[in-house]
Amino acid sequence: MTAKARVRIRIESRSGSETTVQKARGDLYRKGNHTYIRYEEEPNELGRTVTLIKLEENQIRIVRQGDVQAEQTFVAGEKRIGYYQTPQGRLELEIETHELKSEAEQGIGITRWSYDLYASGAHAGAYRIKLLIQEE
Length: 136
Description:
Layout: E1 4-15, E2 18-31, E3 34-40, E4 49-55, E5 60-66, E6 69-74, E7 79-86, E8 89-102, E9 109-119, E10 122-135
Antiparallel strand pairs: 1-2, 1-10, 2-3, 3-4, 4-5, 5-6, 6-7, 7-8, 8-9, 9-10
């Protein structure tokens, strides 16, 4: 794989009986032992946002910048603090990750994780995420 590759991204998010699917095209690049995936989200009522996913051996970090700003870190068996900020205000998040499995090779493939999300101390939902990355 070259230093930078164009990729197709598919993110399935399940919470209860609801499933949402987000698709995007972006860039994948490696730096040291880390894989980065960068893409622009579809513009919506909240504006424009660029997302960066950092894949490490036992950790996933998602940083969103633009009209929406957010940061979430997922480490199996741990609780991590994050945030979600819109022009309307900032929401403190706590993420309790239960499992994190990757069948990806240098970022290409499938990564799955599940977590409980707490917003301002209140349980906001249990989520299962499936991230599929394919070279274009």
